[in-house]
Specification:
Distance between the termini of chain B: 41 Å
Distance between the termini of chain A: 32 Å
Number of helices of chain B: 0
Order of helices and strands of chain B: EEEEEEEEEEEE
Structural class of chain B: mainly beta
Structural class of chain A: mainly beta
Radius of gyration of chain B: 14 Å
Number of helices of chain A: 0
Helix content of chain B: under 10%
Oligomer: heterodimer
Shape of chain B: globular
Helix content of chain A: under 10%
Radius of gyration of chain A: 13 Å
Strand content of chain B: over 45%
Chain lengths: 113, 116
Amino acid sequence: GAGVSQTPSNKVTEKGKYVELRCDPISGHTALYWYRQSLGQGPEFLIYFQGTGAADDSGLPNDRFFAVRPEGSVSTLKIQRTERGDSAVYLCASSFIGSGELFFGEGSRLTVL
Amino acid sequence: AQKVTQAQTEISVVEKEDVTLDCVYETRDTTYYLFWYKQPPSGELVFLIRRNSFDEQNEISGRYSWNFQKSTSSFNFTITASQVVDSAVYFCALKDSGAGSYQLTFGKGTKLSVIP
């Protein structure tokens, strides 16, 4: 499809495990964002990519979280040593640079047992 | 620090009623953008509108209208003649318009249920 694609849609893992969440943005969008949404809350900013580089990673909660976008398109959010508090929906969005209109994917729901 | 407050956690209306969703924001920035997004049950946030802090004109798009009041730091959203398809969670968001600012600060959302 033409929208932002996120995989997996659901991921259940055990505490301490490593997780990767993938985002395939809209073709041509050079800006890519990751947000995290906990139950009953609004999305919270994690990281922003402009092309291949992370222009702003100030929202990453700690060093267990890392994201890459090696070719300026697909991005992977990596979470090491997962904790129960990491359980949330991880949302990816893309846009043209400078545009305030973000296009969001349907999210990856992470559950850490 | 930026903050967006959506005091209404949940609202239920009967179809065809008008409904207003409130949004109050706090920012020390002199220029900024305000947004509304819709999140249907599928989970995908859908962009509805962006408003620049310089532009206080109200906007109407079909059954949707937005009232921006800089003096009260509010950016309220009204749906006229609500329909069942309007049922969703609605988020108000704020972004600094300065160079190097990329983050949207979202409110907690208002869940709207339109009852047939």
